[in-house]
Amino acid sequence: MTSDINLSRRLLEQFLVVAQEKHFGRAADRLGMSQPPLSQSIQRLERTVGARLFDRGPGGVRLTAAGEAFAVDARRLLDLQTAAVVRARRIASGTEGAVRVGYVSLLSHLYLPALLRAAAERLPGLRVHLQHDSSAGVVDRVRDGTLDLGFVRDPARLSDDLLSEVVATERIAAAVPRGHPLADADGIDLAELAHEDFALPDPAALPALAGQLQVACREAGFTPRGVAMADDLSGLFSYVGAGLCVSLAPEGLRHLAVADVRLVPLRGHSGHLDTAVYAIRRPDADPAVLSLLDLAVALRPSTA
After folding, report:
1. Model confidence over 184-200: pLDDT tens digits?
2. 160 and 175 together in one domain
3. Bridge partners of residue 151, in order along the sequence
4. Same domain, 285 and 142
């Protein structure tokens, strides 16, 4: 019965050496054992398989038809065993596996391409599955386990059951319509926007960024006059691109071809004019997640 079959790696290796040497004495020498135990092992194997695998003669042995077929499968079994061990070790070490990564809108253009390229080169056994959501949605899905790793700009909703790490730091810039008088300036002071209408981040969706921009404006001597609100940066850009107002956004977005929006650098040294991109994960993240996170940190630019 198949349930009684016990084909150990050692037994398969002994069989293949005999098949190669075609002689029990030479095979025993190669295996570093005496001939009688080797002959007994092969007899036990034949009883287990239920077929004669060798024709024995005075000059040595040769494989039977059943033995020829079994030799092919025995080599395959040994290869599969080796591959299974290697794969398990790779997964345990974080160099193989699948990682579900959540991200918010414009991050997919700025940071994810470099991370995906590096992962393909350095962690070719790792499969990355990208899933878009809002900042709040990414946080919630990492928490409930439907995402393994998340990239967000606003970690304000994180609780003690999640960990975060900065993977990029950016300077805040003024986002103005293309025809705005300041659109072609090399740099401006934030106070120059004091009398403008603003599109502002929704405090419910982006509480840290919304609070940060309020503080930066107050430091510049004014309270921004909010006429529009959005729960992500692409929404803010839509209002600015429509020519309805100005906004504040990470300077890294200048690399994107956003129609009808210009990003103008802000002068000054306020700490509230710096923002960050965070990677978030659960404390019990598996090695594959940690390997991808380590790669994201290694790619971290000082500025976007």
Report:
1. 999 999 999 999 999 99
2. no
3. 103, 279
4. yes
Exposure class string for 132-159: b at 16+ Cβ within 10 A, else e = ebbbbbbbbbbbeeebbbbbbbbbbbbe
Number of folded domains in the chain? 3
Amino acid at 8: S
Give Cα separations from 77 to 7, 41, 49, 53, 83 (angstroms). 10, 18, 14, 17, 10
Q: Has residue 258 been placed in a domain?
A: yes
Do 88 and 215 have their domain in common?
A: no
Q: Is the pLDDT of residue 109 over 90?
A: no
CA dihedral of residues 251, 253, 256, 260 (deg, nearest 10) = -80
The CATH number given to whatever domain includes residue 294 is 3.40.190.10
How would residue 28 be classed by pLDDT, with cut points 50, 70 and 90? Answer: very high
Question: What 3 state SS string does 41-110 have?
Answer: HHHHHHHHHCCCCEEEECCEEEECHHHHHHHHHHHHHHHHHHHHHHHHHHHHHCCEEEEEEEECCCHHHH
Q: Which residues contact 111 (CB under 8 A, 6 or more apart)?
A: 151, 167, 168, 277, 296, 299
Domain assignment present for 303 = no
Rounded mean pLDDT of the chain?
A: 88
Residue 35 tokens read as: 């001939």
Of 204, 194, 199, 203, the residue nearest 248 (C-alpha)? 199
Q: How many CB atoms lie within 10 A of CB 52?
A: 12
